[in-house]
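Progress note, sequence design subtask.
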């Protein structure tokens, strides 16, 4: 026993010494603080983060790309039809564009018909493919059924369903109203099920196809101020696996994709992404940056294509490793929430 104890003490001492040497070596070359890293000039940042060289083209606004470099064959989805909820802006808009650039005709659907019509015009002009804008509310199955019937009438088929409609905001659980929690669950979870079931019943069960549900990593570690969205997205991940099992025999693949912080989106603004970027928080992310809408669209493209022909019931995380290392800081998030609430209140006062 004494011999074992001495051996353990020596091993522990050696391990501590090695750890200290490692920490000393990285501290000598690393920035002394996150704020100093954020203040580096552009040349230095490129040197620190070579991952930016691999980023695909993207633009912050809901505009089509002026340049696009193909990773897959341009005819990967030739003559397919995709149905994208929440397709008028953000991730949904870029997803529709990337699918269309690969030969796919697309339906973009949400509640805002005016926004959809403008988005459809831009998408068709940039890609040369047909884009049909249809109004619906994912919480109301009858509106989904009407949109799906119109799609089948106009385009004749639905090969790909992308459930992207969502609602989110920062809010402590103690301050969250019952109705706010219910609304997020209805849009995210019920909306995903409603749309999936209608499209399956009317087309997929007899013809096959694929479903891609946009999820999140919020529930992986109990993200602060996100009990509503984290719960809704965790349910979507579970639903993905259930539907993959039940619908697989019909030739329907069902997968989910969980984005990290994605610049140029409403969620990025609402969840404090801009403030996080300016303060250097992304230096804690393994790939040391926020993601882009094009990167999420490429993930959807993969899951929707024959490249993923044997993939179902899977959750693809596209977040640069963010959920593994980013701080889950209540004080920081509360500050962001408080600041956002104050700005909204100021806007209300100005409009009165």
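Output:
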């Amino acid at each position: 026993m004494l011999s074992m104890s001495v051996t353990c003490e020596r091993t522990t001492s050696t391990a501590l010494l090695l750890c200290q040497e490692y920490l000393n070596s990285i501290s000598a070359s690393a920035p002394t603080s996150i704020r100093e890293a954020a203040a580096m000039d552009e040349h230095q940042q490129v040197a620190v983060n070579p991952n930016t060289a691999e980023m695909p083209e993207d633009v912050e606004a809901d505009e089509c790309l002026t340049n696009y470099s193909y990773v897959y064959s341009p005819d990967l989805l030739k003559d397919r039809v995709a149905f994208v909820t929440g397709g008028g802006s953000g991730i949904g808009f870029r997803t529709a564009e990337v699918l269309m650039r690969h030969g796919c005709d697309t339906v973009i659907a949400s509640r805002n018909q005016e926004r959809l019509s403008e988005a459809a015009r831009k998408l068709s002009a940039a890609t040369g493919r047909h884009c049909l804008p249809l109004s619906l509310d994912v919480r109301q199955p009858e509106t989904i059924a009407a949109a799906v019937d119109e799609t089948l009438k106009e385009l004749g088929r639905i090969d790909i369903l992308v459930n992207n409609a969502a609602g989110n905001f920062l809010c402590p659980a103690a301050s969250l109203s019952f109705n706010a929690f219910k609304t997020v669950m209805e849009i995210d979870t019920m909306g995903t099920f409603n749309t999936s079931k209608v499209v399956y019943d009317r087309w997929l069960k007899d013809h096959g196809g694929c479903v891609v549900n946009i999820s999140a990593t919020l529930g992986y570690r109990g993200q602060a101020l996100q009990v509503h969205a984290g719960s809704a997205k965790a349910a979507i991940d579970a639903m993905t696996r259930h539907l993959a099992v039940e619908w697989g025999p019909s030739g329907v693949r069902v997968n989910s994709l969980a984005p990290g912080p994605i610049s140029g989106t409403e969620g990025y603004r609402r969840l404090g992404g801009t403030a996080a970027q300016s303060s250097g928080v992304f230096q804690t992310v393994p790939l040391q940056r926020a993601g882009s809408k094009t990167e999420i669209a490429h993930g959807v493209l993969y899951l929707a294509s024959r490249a993923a022909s044997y993939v179902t019931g899977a959750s693809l995380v596209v977040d640069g490793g963010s959920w593994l290392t980013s701080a889950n800081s209540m004080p920081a998030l509360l500050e962001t929430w408080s600041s956002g609430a104050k700005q909204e209140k100021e806007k209300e006062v100005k409009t009165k």
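The longest strand covers residues 252-259. Work on this subtask will continue into the next period as scheduled.
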